[in-house]
Design goal:
Layout: E1 2-11, E2 14-24, E3 28-33, H1 40-48, E4 53-60, E5 63-64, E6 72-75, H2 89-94, H3 98-101, H4 109-121, H5 137-150, E7 155-159, H6 167-182, E8 186-190, E9 203-208, E10 210-215, H7 217-220, H8 223-230, E11 239-242, E12 248-251
Parallel strand pairs: 3-8, 3-9, 6-7, 7-8
Antiparallel strand pairs: 1-2, 1-4, 4-5, 9-10, 11-12
Length: 252
């Protein structure tokens, strides 16, 4: 179990998120929702120890998560990545084995097999020798998903993985998420989508600097909670929300 207790973090004395507490159980896929500036990316980075925290603890099992980062796979936003860096698709995926193999060491046969299998799973094996910058946005996202799979992690964090991707990539990614769920992995996925894709998630964490709600779709995506999170901007989103029974409701 991943346990986040009273976590707070920010930048330059400005608190971005505060008093965040929740738990992820094995076999759960959780969507992290909230408006722009809500602190979603900051929360994930704080959990991973990539930004300073001002309070709180993050535990995986009975130990601090920062002592177990080998168990973590993190896929950042595409905008954070230098796509002009001259590296091949195959080498990007092999980077997912770095913690196990070690820096400047030749990858083992097992590592090469895991990287190859990961590329095949996301249907990108024929692009292994391409430069990463030569691919489309959806293809790039699939490569980074393959890198995460090659890590053989227990915890997966994705920062807006569906932004700007094609339908095939979205279908592949949700299929992989379902496979990871079946293997008792834990996934936290930052998303902006308030539509039917929410049916793929077991729990929703609704955030706007502090946690608005955490639970299943029906209890989290209420009109009151959405207005607390999005304020008057919700008037811009006449979107279909999927409740716990699978029926659509208008979130206005």
């Amino acid at each position: 179990m991943l346990e986040v207790c009273n976590l707070a973090a920010g930048y330059r004395d400005v608190e971005a998120v505060r008093n965040i507490s929740f738990c992820l159980q094995p076999g759960q896929v959780v969507a992290l929702l909230g408006p722009n500036g809500a602190g979603k990316s900051t929360l994930v980075k704080a959990i991973l120890g990539l930004v300073p925290t001002t309070q709180g603890i993050v535990k995986f099992g009975d130990r601090p998560l920062k002592q177990q980062l080998r168990q973590v796979a993190y896929v950042p936003q595409r905008s954070y990545i230098d796509w002009d860096y001259p590296i091949t698709v195959g080498n990007v995926v092999m980077m997912g084995r770095t913690r196990q193999t070690g820096w400047f060491r030749t990858p083992s046969r097992y590592a090469k097999e895991k990287a190859k299998a990961a590329l095949e799973r996301v249907e990108m094996e024929k692009y292994a020798k391409y430069k990463i910058g030569e691919l489309s946005g959806g293809q790039q996202q699939r490569v980074f998903l393959a890198r995460a799979l090659a890590q053989e992690a227990d915890l997966f964090f994705f920062d807006e993985p569906f932004a700007g991707v094609d339908q095939k990539t979205e279908e592949i990614m949700f299929a992989v998420f379902a496979e990871l769920k079946a293997a008792d992995k834990m996934l936290l996925v930052i998303s902006h989508d308030l539509g039917e894709s929410l049916a793929h998630y077991d729990r929703i964490l609704l955030l706007n600097q502090q946690m608005i709600a955490f639970g299943d779709r029906a209890e989290v995506l209420t009109s009151e909670n959405l207005k607390r999170a999005y304020g008057t901007s919700m008037n811009k989103y006449p979107l279909s929300i999927i409740d716990g029974s699978g029926n659509s409701q208008l979130a206005a």
